[in-house]
Amino acid sequence: MTRIIFWRxxxxxxxxxxxxxxxxxxxxxxxxxxxxxxRLHAAGVESYSVIIDGHRIHYYVRGPVDGSPVVLVHxxxxxxEDFLNLAPYLQKAGYRIYTPDLLGFGQSExxxxxxxxISDQADLVVNFLDxxxxxxxxxxxxxxxxxxxxxxxxxxxERVRRLVLMDSAGLRMPPAWDTKLFTPTNAAEVNQLExxxxxxxxxxxKFVAEDILRLSASYGWVVKRALASMLTATDVMDEDxxxxxxxxxxxxxxxxxxxxxxxxxxxxxxxxxSRLEVASGCGHLAPQNCTAAFGPMMTRFLQSSSPxxxxxxxxxxx
Length: 318
Hints:
alpha/beta; Rossmann fold; 2 domains; nine-stranded mixed sheet; globular; disordered C terminus
């Protein structure tokens, strides 16, 4: 009887292993997303949705209920889970962290008639603050999210206590790379995009690249519409940034090819009281891959009360 039970269990686990392997092979991005969801749940991160202008907007929140609020805005093609590695630094320091999915991204709705422009997404962020009862927050944004955060800070300075810009877009600087790579159509373009996003990226397995292409074919229209709006330069912030009065921290990866360090330095020059910190050896994904550098610096900045115009360099892993 014991031997029969053993073989039955062995057969069951073999079947389970084969099924799990098959699912991972055909939908690796979904599997990795589910693993991320389990990590968030295990960390006590709460998942909610609110209705803004008739559309469902998803967000995560973590940290003590009475903690000072921090809102982090993801970039183009991103999602709230992109701050999985950064948020724990802020949570450990006692902050209450909100990471919304912008309209059209992550788990939020994707209305076909939306513009997905910077100004509309900035209005969404302000409406999000109203919906969750936040009068004033420390606001951070990454890449396109940094552009959106700039727009919120300029148009509604009373809502932003401190501003953090991470490898941010927003200036009148045309991309020096092919923007079509953000919606790749073949494996070569997927690898080119990976090379833009990070220094020395690992070669993606063919089945992973194919799954990325499947997602791009399904959801790439949102990215294309957002990019088209940004490329009009309608919402560029060059003339508005000098008006900012709140403390501003600018965090950058020195190997960024999407928004190069020259853009970070230009933003720094436009905001007289800002502080620029550079992570050595890090690319555009620095807020995700170089949090050992970004996390402590951002935490110290949020806890400080006296901004200063200065520049520093952080080594990745410090």
